[in-house]
Structure formats: structure tokens, C-alpha cells
Amino acid sequence: GSVQIVWRSVPNWLAFSIFRTNPTMLKALSEHFKHVSDAITSKYYIGNDPAFLASCDDAQTMAAVQVLRSITFKGAPVVGGFSRYVDELRKELTLHLVDEQSQFEEQLALRYVAEEELVLWNTDYGRCWSSQLPTKSLCNQRAGASVLASTSPNLAIAHVELCVGCSCLEISTEHAAYWIERRDQNALLAKEAKRANDQTTLAIVQRRQ
Length: 209
Description:
Elements: H1 2-21, H2 26-32, H3 38-46, H4 50-72, H5 83-97, H6 106-115, E1 121-122, E2 127-128, H7 138-143, H8 160-163, E3 169-170, H9 176-195, H10 199-208
Antiparallel strand pairs: 1-2, 2-3
């Protein structure tokens, strides 16, 4: 009991101190503690202070704006289930967020994020758009959640094998490191399984590809 309390107090103090000094470090904090999203970091490590939570929301909003900018100007190729919606989204964003000089209007993008209640959940392997596609969220379907309760991923159920079949998952170049490592691990496991004639492991590797 006491060990757990001490352990939790250290990241809490560290996150609070860093965030108070530089709120833009939210993303780095999230990655350091290996959480699925910035929201987890803000909830468990930043605390409940309204000013800090507002800054967390601001950081998440600006991250969403950057994603919209990238999609608008075809900044990076997109794969995953969400890729089928990207062209339509790009047309909508270009219509509403790009001025006559082909410049991205950040203030309009901020308003768009707020009005559409756009919250993006980022992981090592991809980004979840369930806030915009709640009826397509596989993890929430598995949980039996209502559509109104499906605007964020169910973290108790979501995992990479499930997500890759979900329409909410967007995979871009920022997630390449995960997939490159996964590919290399699969190749190594497949090689070892074939050498050992381990059909069980080989079947698992084939499902992971």
C-alpha cells in the first residue's frame, strides 16, 4: 500500500511541476508515462485545478488543429479504417478553413474543433476518431455502449488488433515507428517459428501481419 502511494506521488509531483512551468509539455508527459492519450495524463497526473485542466484542453485542441491542417494540405498519407473518410473530410475542411489566399485559418479551425466536439485520442499505433464516428467504434460496440457514450474509445477493451479493423483508426507517418518495429518483430518470430516448426506461434504471427 505505502509503496504504491509513494510511487504515484512522484509522477504526480513531476507532472504538476513540469506542466506549471510549460503547459506545452503535456504531449511529452503523456508519452513519458506511456498513456493512451493526453486526457489520461491530465486526469491522473495534472489534477483537478480548473486553470490546469483548461490548459490541458487548450493543448488537446491545438493538437487537433494541427491534425486538421495536415489533412487539409495532404501533409501525410493516411491508412487505417478512417482513411476512407479523409477525402470527404479534406473537402469539408478546405471549404470552411482555407481563405481566398489558400491560407489555413487557425481561428476558424479552433471554432471547428469546438463546434464539432473533436477530440482525438492518439496512441503509438494510430489516432482514434471515435468522437466523430461513434456509431463505428468497435471497442464501444463490444462494450455494449450507447452511441452517446461512444465518443471516446473504451480503453478497457481497445487494443491494436481490434483497432486495425475499426473505421475510427487513422494511421499516419507519425505512427510509423510502431509499425516498423512490429513488422521486424513479426519477421523474427516467423523465422524462429519456422525453424522450430512451431505452428501455433506461426499462426499468431500471420494474424498480426
